[in-house]
Amino acid sequence: MQHAYLYDAVRTPFGRFGGGLAAIRPDDLAAAVVSGIVERSPALDPERIDGVVFGNANGAGEENRNVARMATLLAGLPTSIPGTTVNRLCGSSLDAAMMASREIEVGDADLLVVGGVESMTRAPWVLPKTERPYPAGDLGLASTTLGWRLVNPAMPAEWTVSLGEATEILREKCGVTRERQDAFAARSHRLADDAWRAGRYDDQVRAMDGVALERDESIRPGSTVEVLAGLKTVFRPAGDTAEGGTVTAGNASPLTDGAGALFVGSEAAGERLGRAPLARIAGRGAWANEPQLFGFAPVEAANRALKRAGITWAEVGAVELNEAFAAQSLACLDAWPIDLAIVNAWGGAIAIGHPLGATGTRLLGTLAARLVAENQRWGVAALCIGVGQGLAIVLENVSGAAVSTTALSTTQGDTA
Fold first, then answer.
1. Rounded mean pLDDT of 251-255?
2. 90 counts as catalytic
3. Rounded CA separation 251/321 (Å)
4. d(Cα 157, Cα 150) in Å, to the nearest integer?
5. In the structure, what pLDDT confidence band is assigned to residue 238 with cuts at 50, 70 and 90?
6. Active site (annotated) includes residue 332
7. pLDDT at residue 414, as a whole number
8. Which residues contact 143 (CB under 8 A, 6 or more apart)?
9. pTM of the model
10. Out of 3, 189, 332, 354, which one is annotated catalytic?
11. Is 174 tagged catalytic?
12. What single string gives the DSSP state of each residue in 132-197?
């Protein structure tokens, strides 16, 4: 088996719900990052791209079911390049990267575009079909933006609570306080703003043509603990009892629009691209638990990815954990033997945003860039997924800037 490498990463700025990217169709967002990443490697003959794998959590609207194929065609790439779309909800594009890396390792492909896209603004409402024409009663529209819809009545009620209520359940179980959540959220905004000001994202983020949005739109540098403490809870009434609510709009990730793309390839793909690899995909992990405890699933997913990479947490120098909710993130971090200082050092989803299908590509692109910039060898990208799942990938810095990288590890990232 050959190794799979990450060669490059690009994404759009992430826009607020109804904000700077609201007028852009999801397939156009996807096409922009596909064409953008190809343009960044002028030595590449596009005919030599073996395929496109995209993550998307909706698919019910302008994505037109297979947004990978739509983006490839809209980007003007050769019609001979196949495309497939992956849906594992919030984990869709991380799953796409995992699938692509397996194709590379077994020799089915040498160079793949991996991406993800979501327009939560433009997610449609859907109307269920009736069993017979002209029903006498009312029918309700269901929003496809986020969470459960058209729920099967056979599902146990405790499984189908909202994501926010599920986070309150996890917060109670793990003892995460409102104060810690607000402090974590304020940290996310501060670090994201610092990273943008320092130019950390300049090489990764490509503005959309004709759109006056050059930076992630949800970052609020003034989001202090004191400001966040004044926000009302959303899913339960606030209170001092164990049943009181703690989750607010300020300590949860916002609804977001955006897209991202990566080049994943074999060692030989470097010649096609005219690029040296940034990182090796060294391990993969997946895990599932009770749907209402979805926020805790990354814990075991990451532990498994580390085991398959042949390393331990003690060797990890950078972590990118998706901040779906501050409470969920803190529950995971409390379960891992790591220092908060290595986690989301350039900000996280609470500030940057969480366009469901695109988040995995952001995590991997940021992690690879951090490993190089911070001179670290090993990093972990992980995220939780609605309905009780988690995914994780271990990257090894092979850019030449890593500590103790005299030779590649001989371990392979076993399939999740």
1. 98
2. yes
3. 15
4. 13
5. confident
6. no
7. 44
8. 123, 125, 149
9. 0.94
10. 354
11. no
12. SSS-SS----EE-SSS--S--TTS-GGGSS-HHHHHHHHHHHHT--HHHHHHHHHHHHHHHHHHHH
